[in-house]
Write a sequence for this structure.
């Protein structure tokens, strides 16, 4: 069975500071990994995804994530936080049948 | 890009009534759609997988008679919450897999259901 663990339900950073949201996964097959962002009362927007190939994946809004198989991790980073980055972030893993399992989510707060 | 339309975005109903939520793929065909439920400040929990022309597959613990799913066409899946109760109040989100496409899934904008 696949699962996703997001370390830290809340992360607070200052504007301009590095953003690091942690995600570890377990999967019996090569995983497809995703990061989604959700703004209040809205659906999910895909930030980035890893399927195969390059392990450093760049997404929208300046976010990127690195797939590390040895650490079973897929942490999300952004060099400089912006106020508009404040939202809920979900890491997800998908099996071959397209069933997507989400982590518990991490709420990012950005302080001025 | 592909768009999934979910309607209504918000619904308030009385206890005991039924509510239907629609999920439409606007510019692509979706053989498979997924329905998720999200409680406040929690993650998305998969409720069921909906395949066009066949019965939905429900996750463990989800009552199929309470949450009726119909996927009658390649562009439309519906979730009906029957005899709704306050504990059914939640945010429901659908996603659609593009037929013949790669690994892309597209999410609807969600429906906030409040049962009084």
């Amino acid at each position: 069975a696949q699962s996703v663990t997001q370390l830290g339900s809340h992360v607070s950073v200052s504007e301009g500071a590095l953003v690091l949201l942690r995600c570890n996964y377990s999967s019996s097959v090569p995983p497809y990994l995703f990061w989604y962002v959700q703004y209040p009362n809205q659906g999910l927007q895909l930030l980035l995804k890893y399927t195969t190939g390059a392990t450093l994946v760049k997404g929208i809004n300046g976010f990127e994530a690195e797939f590390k198989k040895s650490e079973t991790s897929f942490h999300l980073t952004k060099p400089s936080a912006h106020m508009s980055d404040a939202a809920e972030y979900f890491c997800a893993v998908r099996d071959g049948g397209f069933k997507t399992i989400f982590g518990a989510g991490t709420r990012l707060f950005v302080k001025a | 890009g592909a768009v999934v339309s979910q309607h209504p975005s918000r619904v308030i109903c009385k206890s005991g009534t039924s509510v239907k939520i629609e999920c439409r793929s606007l510019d692509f065909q979706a053989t498979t759609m997924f329905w998720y439920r999200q409680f406040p400040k929690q993650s998305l929990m998969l409720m069921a997988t909906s395949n066009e022309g066949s019965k939905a597959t429900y996750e463990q613990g989800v009552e199929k008679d309470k949450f009726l799913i119909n996927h009658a066409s390649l562009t439309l899946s519906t979730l009906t919450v029957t005899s709704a109760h306050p504990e059914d109040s939640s945010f429901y989100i659908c996603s659609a897999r593009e037929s013949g496409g790669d690994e892309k899934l597209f999410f609807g904008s969600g429906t906030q259901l409040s049962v009084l």
About this structure: The first strand of chain B starts at residue 4 and ends at 7.
